[in-house]
Every structure is written in C-alpha cells, then in structure tokens.
Amino acid sequence: MIKYLKITSIVMSVFILILLNGCSDSLVNNNNHPPQIVNFTANPKVMTVFNSGSLYEPDRTTLVCIATDEDKDKLTYIWKANWGEFLQDLDSPSIQWGCDTPQIAHITVYVTDGIEIDSARIELITN
C-alpha cells in the first residue's frame, strides 16, 4: 500500500509540474500590453485616376499608421488591400499605395508586437 501511495504521489507531482509549466506561458503573455493604433490616415483619401486615351494613369496616396505599445515592444506592420498595389516595403508605419482604375479600395493595417495584434481599416475612393 505504501508503494502504491509513493507511485501515486510521484505521478501527481509530475502532473502538477506539467500543468504549471503549461500555464506559465499564458501568465507571461497576460502581462503583455497589446499595441494600439492611435491614428490611421490617408493623404489624399479621394484620388483621381486620369484616363489618357485607352490607359489609366495611376494615382497614389500616402498611408500613415501611428501605433504605440505600452511595453515598448518592437512593432511590425502588415498592410493588406482588396486591390491596387503597395509601392514600397510593407513593414513600415508609412507606405504609398497606388491604383490605375476607378474603384473603392479598402486598406487594412495590422500592427503586432509579436504576441498581440491591433488593426484598422480605411476606405479610399478613386474616380
């Protein structure tokens, strides 16, 4: 009976250590503060695409995302658009986007500190 209790005690101790070790990562992550997008702008927000004969000449806008992180973590920027194209490095808080056809575009920026993420979306109009 004593041998059974020792084995049970060892098994329970190992189980508790595994459980606590698994929880420690979530406890660390709970101390992280997520990044926050403070401002997201486009200049200009309405663009004109010129039709020169049979070809459209693209117009472009500058997108700026201002984000903060209370923990001062390095922030990574991820840009997505339903159409058009980004004209430079996508991991930057400021970027240019261009299009060559009249349409409404939805641009989304995601900002992450490697643990948590914030996002914002803006609508651009080209005519």
Examine the secondary-structure arrangement and name the CATH architecture of the largest domain: Sandwich
The low-confidence parts are 3-9, 11-28
Approximate strand percentage: over 45%
What's the overall average pLDDT, rounded? 79
| CATH topology type of the largest domain | Immunoglobulin-like
Description:
The structure is a single chain. With 127 residues, the protein is an alpha+beta fold. The protein has two domains: 1-31; 36-126, Immunoglobulin-like, CATH 2.60.40. Helix content is 23%, strand content 46%. The chain contains one helix and ten strands. It has one helix spanning 2-30; strands at residues 36-43, 46-47, 50-52, 55-57, 59-68, 76-81, 85-86, 94-99, 104-112, 117-126. The strands form three sheets. The chain has a four-stranded antiparallel beta sheet with strand order 1-5-8-7, with no helix packed on it. A four-stranded mixed beta sheet has the order 2-10-9-6, with no helix packed on it. The protein has a two-stranded antiparallel sheet with strand order 3-4. Strand 9 and strand 10 form a beta hairpin. The protein starts with a helix and ends with a strand.
Give a quick rundown of the structure.
With 127 residues, the protein is of the alpha+beta class. The protein is 23% helix and 46% strand. The N and C termini lie far apart (84 Å).
